[in-house]
Each structure stands twice: as C-alpha cells, then as structure tokens.
C-alpha cells in the first residue's frame, strides 16, 4: 500500500451537515457525487487517479451557500464537479441539494479549495 503522502490524485466528496439524513442516505448521496464527478473528469485524469488507487476524502459543509462556494471555486480552477439534488423519494424533500463531488484532480489543487473543511 502506498503511503498517504504519495497520493498525487484524489477525489473530494462533500455532504451538507445542515440536512438531516441517515448514515445510509448520506452514503448514497456521496456515491452519486463520486460517480457524477468522475464522469465529468477527463479520461487521462481518471486513468491516473484510478491507477494510483482512487483516493477519496469525505468532508462536510455547514450550509448550501458554503457548498455552492466550494463548487464555484472548483469550477474556476478547472476541476470537475457534480452537485447532487435528491429526488425526494425517501427521507428528504424533493430538490434538496445534498452532496458535491470534486475531481478526481491533483491533491494540491483540491486542498487549496477544500483545505478548511472538516472530515465527515
């Protein structure tokens, strides 16, 4: 296994802490965000990230506004994003924004955008 500091690529998955969801619901929303951001990434980046071990970091934001700020900053940096809006079939209201996927991208680029966020 590679040392943590050796990962050049990663994906950041971000959940809103102000929306009440079960653990399973959070996991599902984060999975949607991971797949969506991956699909928006370029082929070369995806391959490099995959070959390195597909590092993922799960973070939380306190509000919808904070999530949109992170999304905007990532897009301005050229990082793939995927904002997840729930269909409302189970626990939360339809149209609720729940999660955000970023990358895969260079770890250092993501750290500039998400470095102040807390781990989930």
UniProtKB/TrEMBL annotation:
CDD domains in alphabetical order: PTH2 (cd02430)
An MF annotation (GO) of this entry: peptidyl-tRNA hydrolase activity
The protein's Enzyme Commission number: 3.1.1.29
Function: The natural substrate for this enzyme may be peptidyl-tRNAs which drop off the ribosome during protein synthesis.
InterPro entries given in the database record: Pep_tRNA_hydro_II_dom_sf (IPR023476), PTH2 (IPR002833)
UniProt keywords, alphabetically: Hydrolase
UniProt keyword Hydrolase, yes or no: yes
Family: Belongs to the PTH2 family.
GO cellular component: cytosol
Entry-linked Pfam families: PTH2
Top-level taxon in the UniProt lineage: Archaea
SUPFAM superfamilies, A to Z: Peptidyl-tRNA hydrolase II
Catalytic activity entry: an N-acyl-L-alpha-aminoacyl-tRNA + H2O = an N-acyl-L-amino acid + a tRNA + H(+)
Protein's UniProt name: Peptidyl-tRNA hydrolase
